[in-house]
User: Which sequence fits this backbone?
C-alpha cells in the first residue's frame, strides 16, 4: 500500500526563506481574516519544497482569496471570476515544468466557475487548487454562497437561504477528483503540511480550507475550530491509522452497513479493531466521499488528506501524445505541408 | 462534338446524406488539376441528416470553373444535378434559363413528391420546359452497375453520387484519373466498396456518352500566374497560417477551442500537428477555451482561440482580461448568420461591431479580416505577428463563405513570410523588470514568461499603475492607462499596409467592402470598369485600426457605396470615423453571399449621371 504513496522531495535547509516569497504589496484583507494565516502558511511551505521560486505560478479568479497572488513574490496572475482553472490549464500546458497553484474561494470555484472546476478535476491536470471555504461572498459584501448553510441570513437572503449547500469534497470526488484534503485556517502547521502534500500529488489536488470571514460569516466553523469543541468535531485522518477522535481519544468511526457511525471505544465491546482504518490511496471513491460528507454535529469533520489516488494526468498524456507523434511525423516543415496532397504546376 | 466554354457554374444538389459535398469537391479537384481557375460554395443544412427528401435536408455544392480569372462561385447555375424533387425546387430559381438539369428520375417517385406536396411530377409535366432536362434513372442504373459485387441495398444506393459525378465528367470532358485515385485511397481498407464506387463512376460516364442528350463541353486551363498551386479552404488556410507563425517564431501553438459551426474544422485541422508541438485543447465551453489560450500566452505559447458569433459573445469578458494584461492572443471568429443560433451554416458579416466594440468598458483591440479563402493563411500569420509584436489581442473576422469555400492557391513559401519580433523580457541585474514598462514606439510592454529567474511579477485584471504594474485605484492613472492602451492599438496603423484601390485612385464612385465579399465585389467592379464606368473598389482587410490613408482614399471619390452582408455596420463605423464623407449603402442579410449581377444592378444606381 505504501508503494502507492505520493512522495515529494523535501530538501532540508534551502536557500529560500519565507521572506523570499513575500512581495512588496500591502496586504489588504480585513484585520482578523483567516486569509492572513493561509498566506503565512504558504510562505512557510514553499521554502521547504525543492522548487525554484520562478517556477511557482499563482493563478486566481475573483474574490478575497483571489488577491493572494499579489502577496506572493512568485509569478502571479489575478484573472476572472471562476475562470482560474482554465487559465491555470493553459499555463500548465504551455509549460508543464511549472508548479501551478490556483487560489480560489467557494463562490469563485463552486458557483460561477463550477463548470471549469469539475472539468479540470475530470481531466486531472496537475495543478493545486486551494479552496478557501468561508461559506459566504466576502468581496461583494456578504451574500450567501453555494456552501452557505441552509437558513443562513445574509444581505441577499434576509429570510434565510433556502438552498442546499455543496460539500466541496463530495463534489470533487463526484467529478473524479484524484486528491482531496481538508485543513483549517487556525492550524498553520497542518495547512503548510497539506500544501506540500498537494504539490506531491500528480494531478488536480483540491485543498479545502475551512476559513473564517470575520465580517460577514464570523464563526461559521466555530464548532470545528474552537478550543473547547475541536477535539470532538475534528477527525484527523492519517493514512493507515484508525479513525479515532475526541478529547479523550475514545471515539471512532465505524462502518455500519452502508453508513458511517460514531462509536465509543469500550462501549458495547467496541475496540480499535472495529474502527475504520484510513486508506487515502484506495481508488474506489465510496468511502472517501462518505468521509468528505461528514458534518458536525452528528459527525466529526474529516481533516487531512481524504483522497490521494494515482491517476494519469492530463498534461502527461498530452505531452506523451506529442512525443509519440514525433516518432511518425508526417511533414518535416510547414512548407512540406503546404506542398502536400494534390498540387499542380501552372507554366 | 465538344463546345468550348469560358466559364461554367455547376451545382450538385441532393439529400444531406447523398454525398453531394464529396461529389462537388471531386469535380472541383479534377477541374483544378486540369488548370481551371475556380471558386466553390458548399451550401448545407445545419442538421446532419434532416429527413430525406425534404427541403430541410437539401445539401448543395456549387462551383464555378473557368479559363479566365474566377473570383466567385457564380450567380446563376448552368448545370444542376438534382437527386430529388426537393433539391430541384430549392435550386431551380438560381438555374439559368436554358440551363441543363440532370435529374435522378428514380428520386422523383411519389414518396418524394409527396414530401414536398407536389401533385404533379416536374420532370414529367411542363414545369421544366425552359430548361434542357436529362432524366437519368441514376439510382437504378447505379445498382445495376454494381449488382454483381454482393453489396447490400443501402451500400449500393450510396454509390449513386459517383454515378452522377461520372455523368458530369462526361459532360465536361473531365479527366477521371484523380477521382479513381481518390477512391482507391479512401477505400483501401474496403476494396469491394472502392470497386463499387469506381464502377458507378464509370457507369455514369458511359451513360452520358451513350445517350448524348446534349453536346459535351470543355473549359480550357486558365491563364493564371505561373507557379505551383493547390486548393485551399478558408478554415484550412487559417490553421496553416497559425502553423507557419509557430514555426517562424519557434514558439509552440496553443489552440483552445470549443466546437461550433462553422469554425470547428480549424480545431480538427490543428489537432493533427501534435508533432509540431501544437497543443489543441477542446475546452468545456467557449469561456474556458479563451481563458486557456490566455493562460498559455501568459506562459509563453502562442495562444489562439476560435469560435463563431455566439461564442465571441461568451469570450467577451476574457478579451477584457487579455486587453488589461496586455498579452498576445488571437481570436478567430468565423461569422455566421445570427443573432443567437440564427443560421449556423450560412454566411454573414454581422459580427463587425461586436468585434470592434462588443466588450465591457474601453477595450480596443486589433481587428482584421481576410478577403479570400487563401489569404486566410496570410491574415492568420499576420494576426500572430501583430498580436505578439504589439502585445495585444487580435480578432480575425472570417465567415462561413470563406471558411468552406475553396479556390486554387499559389503555394507560398514560409521562408518569405515577414519575421516576427518577440518582445521577450530578459533578466537584467542592473535594471529591475517592470511589467508595464513599454517599448517607446509601439507602446507594447515586455513579455516575461513564468520560469524566467528574476522576473517574478504579478499581473491581473485590476487596473495597473503605469510602468510598475502595481494595483492602482488612482483616478488619473486609470485615465492615463485607458489612453495608453488605446494609443497602443492606434499606433498599429504605422505597421500595416496602406489601403489600396482597385481602379483609378480618383474617380466617380468608390465601392467599399471588407472581408469575405471581395470576390463578388471585385468581379462586379471589374465588369463595370470594362463597361467604362468610373468606378473603383477599396476592399478593407484592416478594420481596427484602419489603414492610415483611409480618409485620403475615401476623399478621392464623389460617391462612396459601402456594400456588406449586414445592415450597414462598416458604413456606420466609417461614418463615425470619417464624418466628413457621405456614405451610401447596399446591404443584404439572407445568409447568402453577394451575387455579381445583383451588385452590378445596385452599383449602377449610383453611376447614373
Assistant:
Amino acid at each position: 500500500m505504501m508503494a502507492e504513496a505520493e512522495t515529494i522531495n523535501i530538501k532540508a535547509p534551502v536557500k529560500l526563506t519565507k521572506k523570499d516569497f513575500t512581495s512588496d504589496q500591502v496586504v489588504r484583507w480585513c484585520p482578523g481574516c483567516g486569509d492572513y494565516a493561509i498566506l503565512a502558511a504558504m510562505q512557510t511551505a514553499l521554502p521547504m519544497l525543492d522548487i525554484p521560486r520562478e517556477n511557482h505560478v499563482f493563478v486566481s479568479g475573483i474574490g478575497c482569496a483571489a488577491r493572494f497572488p499579489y502577496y506572493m513574490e512568485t509569478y502571479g496572475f489575478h484573472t476572472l471570476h471562476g475562470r482560474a482553472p482554465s487559465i491555470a490549464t493553459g499555463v500548465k500546458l504551455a509549460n508543464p515544468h511549472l508548479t501551478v497553484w490556483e487560489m480560489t474561494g467557494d463562490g469563485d470555484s463552486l458557483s460561477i466557475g463550477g463548470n471549469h472546476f469539475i472539468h479540470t478535476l475530470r481531466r486531472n491536470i496537475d495543478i493545486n487548487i486551494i479552496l478557501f471555504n468561508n461559506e459566504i461572498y466576502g468581496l461583494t459584501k456578504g451574500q450567501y454562497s453555494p456552501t452557505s448553510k441552509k437558513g443562513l441570513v445574509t444581505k441577499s437572503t434576509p429570510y434565510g437561504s433556502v438552498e442546499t449547500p455543496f460539500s466541496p469534497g463530495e463534489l470533487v470526488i463526484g467529478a473524479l477528483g484524484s486528491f482531496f484534503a481538508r485543513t483549517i485556517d487556525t492550524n498553520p502547521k497542518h495547512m503548510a503540511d497539506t500544501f506540500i502534500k498537494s504539490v506531491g500529488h500528480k494531478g488536480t489536488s483540491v485543498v479545502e480550507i475551512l476559513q473564517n470571514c470575520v465580517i460577514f460569516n464570523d464563526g461559521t466553523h466555530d464548532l470545528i475550530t474552537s478550543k473547547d469543541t475541536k477535539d470532538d468535531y475534528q477527525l484527523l485522518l492519517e493514512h493507515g491509522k484508525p479513525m479515532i477522535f475526541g478529547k479523550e481519544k475514545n471515539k471512532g468511526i465505524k462502518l455500519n452497513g452502508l453508513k458511517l457511525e460514531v462509536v465509543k471505544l469500550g462501549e458495547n465491546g467496541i475496540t480499535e479493531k472495529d474502527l475504520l482504518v484510513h486508506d487515502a490511496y484506495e481508488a474506489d471513491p465510496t468511502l472517501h466521499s462518505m468521509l468528505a460528507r461528514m458534518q458536525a454535529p452528528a459527525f466529526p469533520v474529516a481533516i487531512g488528506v481524504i483522497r490521494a489516488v494515482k491517476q494519469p494526468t492530463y498534461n502527461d498524456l498530452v505531452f506523451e501524445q506529442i512525443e509519440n507523434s514525433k516518432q511518425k511525423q508526417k511533414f518535416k516543415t510547414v512548407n512540406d505541408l503546404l506542398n502536400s496532397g494534390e498540387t499542380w504546376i501552372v507554366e | 462534338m465538344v463546345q468550348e466554354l469560358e466559364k461554367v457554374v455547376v451545382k450538385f444538389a441532393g439529400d444531406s446524406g447523398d454525398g453531394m459535398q464529396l461529389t462537388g469537391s471531386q469535380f472541383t479537384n479534377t477541374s483544378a488539376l486540369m488548370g481551371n481557375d475556380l471558386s466553390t460554395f458548399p451550401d448545407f443544412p445545419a442538421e446532419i441528416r434532416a429527413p430525406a427528401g425534404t427541403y430541410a435536408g437539401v445539401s448543395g455544392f456549387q462551383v464555378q470553373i473557368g479559363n479566365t480569372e474566377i473570383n466567385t462561385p457564380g450567380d446563376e447555375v448552368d448545370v444542376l444535378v438534382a437527386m430529388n424533387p426537393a433539391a430541384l425546387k430549392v435550386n431551380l430559381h438560381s438555374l439559368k434559363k436554358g440551363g441543363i438539369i440532370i435529374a435522378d428520375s428514380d428520386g422523383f417517385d411519389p414518396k418524394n413528391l409527396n414530401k414536398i406536396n407536389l401533385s404533379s411530377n416536374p420532370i414529367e409535366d411542363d414545369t421544366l420546359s425552359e430548361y434542357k432536362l436529362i432524366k437519368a434513372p441514376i439510382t437504378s442504373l447505379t445498382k445495376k452497375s454494381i449488382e454483381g459485387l454482393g453489396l447490400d441495398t443501402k451500400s449500393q444506393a450510396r454509390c449513386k453520387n459517383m454515378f452522377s459525378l461520372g455523368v458530369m465528367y462526361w459532360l465536361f470532358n473531365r479527366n477521371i484519373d484523380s477521382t479513381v485515385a481518390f477512391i482507391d485511397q479512401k477505400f483501401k481498407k474496403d476494396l469491394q466498396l472502392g470497386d463499387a464506387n469506381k464502377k458507378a463512376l464509370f457507369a455514369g460516364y458511359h451513360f452520358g456518352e451513350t445517350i448524348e442528350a446534349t453536346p459535351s463541353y470543355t473549359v480550357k486551363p486558365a491563364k493564371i500566374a505561373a507557379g505551383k498551386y493547390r486548393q485551399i479552404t478558408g478554415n484550412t488556410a487559417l490553421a496553416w497560417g497559425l502553423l507557419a507563425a509557430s514555426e517562424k517564431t519557434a514558439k509552440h501553438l496553443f489552440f483552445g477551442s470549443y466546437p461550433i459551426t462553422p469554425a470547428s474544422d480549424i480545431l480538427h485541422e490543428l489537432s493533427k500537428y501534435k508533432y509540431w508541438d501544437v497543443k489543441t485543447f477542446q475546452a468545456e465551453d467557449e469561456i474556458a477555451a479563451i481563458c486557456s489560450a490566455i493562460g498559455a500566452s501568459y506562459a509563453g505559447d502562442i495562444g489562439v482561440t476560435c469560435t463563431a458569433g455566439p461564442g465571441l459573445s461568451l469570450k467577451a469578458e476574457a478579451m477584457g482580461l487579455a486587453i488589461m494584461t496586455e498579452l498576445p492572443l488571437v481570436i478567430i471568429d468565423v461569422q455566421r448568420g445570427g443573432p443567437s443560433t440564427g443560421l449556423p451554416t450560412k454566411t454573414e458579416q454581422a459580427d463587425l461591431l461586436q468585434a470592434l466594440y462588443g466588450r465591457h468598458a474601453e477595450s480596443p483591440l486589433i481587428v482584421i479580416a481576410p478577403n479570400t479563402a487563401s489569404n486566410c493563411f496570410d491574415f492568420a500569420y499576420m494576426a500572430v505577428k501583430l498580436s505578439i509584436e504589439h502585445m495585444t489581442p487580435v480578432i480575425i473576422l472570417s465567415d462561413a463563405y470563406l471558411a468552406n469555400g475553396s479556390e486554387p492557391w499559389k503555394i507560398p513559401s514560409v521562408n518569405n513570410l515577414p519575421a516576427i519580433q518577440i518582445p521577450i523580457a530578459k533578466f537584467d541585474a542592473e535594471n529591475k523588470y517592470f511589467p508595464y514598462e513599454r517599448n517607446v514606439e509601439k507602446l507594447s510592454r515586455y513579455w516575461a514568461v513564468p520560469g524566467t529567474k528574476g522576473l517574478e511579477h504579478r499581473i491581473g485584471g485590476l487596473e495597473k499603475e503605469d510602468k510598475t504594474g502595481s494595483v492602482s485605484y488612482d483616478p488619473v492613472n486609470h485615465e492615463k492607462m485607458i489612453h495608453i492602451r488605446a494609443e497602443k492599438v492606434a499606433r498599429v496603423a504605422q505597421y500595416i499596409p496602406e489601403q489600396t484601390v482597385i481602379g483609378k485612385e480618383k474617380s466617380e464612385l468608390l465601392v467599399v467592402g471588407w472581408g469575405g465579399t471581395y470576390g463578388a465585389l471585385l468581379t462586379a467592379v471589374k465588369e463595370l470598369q470594362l463597361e467604362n464606368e468610373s468606378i473603383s473598389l477599396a476592399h478593407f482587410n484592416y478594420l481596427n485600426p484602419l489603414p492610415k490613408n483611409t480618409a485620403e482614399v475615401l476623399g478621392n471619390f464623389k460617391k462612396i457605396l459601402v456594400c456588406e452582408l449586414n445592415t450597414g455596420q462598416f458604413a456606420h463605423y466609417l461614418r463615425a470615423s470619417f464624418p466628413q464623407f457621405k456614405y451610401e449603402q447596399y446591404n443584404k442579410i439572407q445568409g447568402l453571399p453577394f451575387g455579381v449581377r445583383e451588385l452590378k444592378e445596385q452599383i449602377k444606381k449610383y453611376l447614373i449621371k
Observations:
- Chain B has three domains: 2-219, 231-416, 507-604.
